[in-house]
Amino acid sequence: MKTSALLTITDLKVAFDTEQGRIHAVDGVGFSLEKGGILGIAGESGCGKSVTALSIIRLLPKPMSSIVAGKILFEGQDLLAIPIRQMQKIRGRKIAMIFQEPMTALNPVHSVGRQMTEVFALHFPGMTVSSMHAGAVKMLDRVGIPDPGQVFKKYPHQLSGGIRQRVMIAMALSCEPDILIADEPTTALDVTIQAQILELIKDLREKSGMSIILITHDLGVIAENCDHVVVMYAGRIAETADVRSLFSHPLHPYTKGLLTSIPSRAKTAKALLPTIEGSVPSLSDMPDGCRFAGRCPLAEDFCRQVLPLEKPVGKGRTAACHLVPEVSV
Fold first, then answer.
1. Does residue 150 or residue 316 have the better pLDDT?
2. What is the overall mean pLDDT for the chain?
3. Distance (Å, rounded) from C-alpha 155 to C-alpha 91?
4. How far is residue 36's CA from residue 53's CA, in Å, rounded to a whole number?
5. Tens of pLDDT along 107-148?
6. How far apart are CA 7 and CA 77, in angstroms?
7. pTM summary value
8. What are the Cα distances from residue 176, in Å, to 36, 92, 198?
9. pLDDT of residue 3
10. Can you name the residues that pair with 38 across neighbouring β-strands?
11. Long-range contacts (CB closer than 8 Å, 24 or more residues apart) made by 292-299
């Protein structure tokens, strides 16, 4: 059957070697990204969102980490099986990433212009210096940076957080990639700048037709910007669904807890905000059963003993919960 999926991840497992032994930060994750779609990956800090993203472009820290299983299919080829030199041609050119902290992602000792022209030099070695310069300034202007010619000459520390984030977006989009991975693109930015950055990403997607993976812990951002959602918990997928279905009828207890915890005007003034009791289990000491069982108000003995696997629970939906009935689709 013909599929419109541009990227398909199957049973991805990523391990880290630590002083406490080997831990699995990502354990059996799988999902697809449609052409032209925006997929949101949500979950608490440490659930494996960023590790999954870094696995796609093979930028996991070495030697402490390794991809021990799984496939990442992009345009029919497994990115985990190709030589690193071939991967370097895809990274940035076909699949680009906006990193979480622009101040640490940008090199502090090089100007914005030098860092941007390096992107062109790497992927388009035949370009002249003047063409690279013009292309960089044009891209800075495209992402809404005022006076891009001056910003081209400046260093990261001379720029505000919002401008640095726009520079990161400009660098990521320089080669007009097929997939853009945005890892917490609005972290530490004020609300106004957050809205501008997200609107910019959506606008660029509509104009270029690229696909986007938007990683965030903010479900409000997911609701406003994404087509489909992957909810992760403790290195595994808890639930997947289209945005409308997830927010109107969440199925997994963890998803329900996340949505209940969102502040709302409809809630009683000065009332305590609902929270998910307990904490995420340590990656070095995972329970045998459901990883959310220790915090789940509905958990039964069986939940604590047997690890639930993802199963279809509706059209285009999956959930990893013993208490949610499987549905034939």
1. 150
2. 90
3. 24
4. 18
5. 999 999 999 999 999 999 999 999 999 999 999 998 889 999
6. 10
7. 0.91
8. 13, 9, 18
9. 56
10. 212
11. 292/233, 292/234, 292/238, 292/252, 292/253, 292/254, 295/254, 295/257, 296/253, 296/254, 297/253, 298/253, 298/323, 299/253
